Amino acid sequence: MELRNQCIIMRTTELAATEEKLHELDRQKEEMLRFSSPASLLQRLEDAMNMTDEESENLHKQLFVQIYKKLRIT
Q1: What is the domain partition of the chain in residue ranges?
Q2: Alpha helices in the chain (DSSP H)
Q3: Which of 17, 21, 63, 72 is spaced 20 to 30 A from 56 at the CA atom?
Q4: Is the pLDDT of residue 60 over 90?
């Protein structure tokens, strides 16, 4: 009887640990699915495009200022 109780305790402990690991993996899966959803991918693409546009505009302004300074000096 004692051995049976020990086996039950071991199984219960292992089951709890396995269930906890399963829940963690499910959480990770859901996070990955959200990260790679079409809406998420589209949002990240739009953010990258906006950042590129900003950087391009800033470079254009810097170039314009440099050309303007050269012309004014001349």
Answers
A1: 2-73
A2: 2-35, 38-73
A3: 72
A4: yes
Structure confidence at residue 11 (pLDDT): 82
**What is the tens place of the pLDDT at every residue in 10-54?**
888 888 899 999 999 999 999 999 989 999 999 999 999 999 999
40: CB partners within 8 A, 6+ apart: 34
3-state class (DSSP) for residue 44? helix
At 36 the three-state DSSP class reads coil
Place of tokens 């963690």: 24
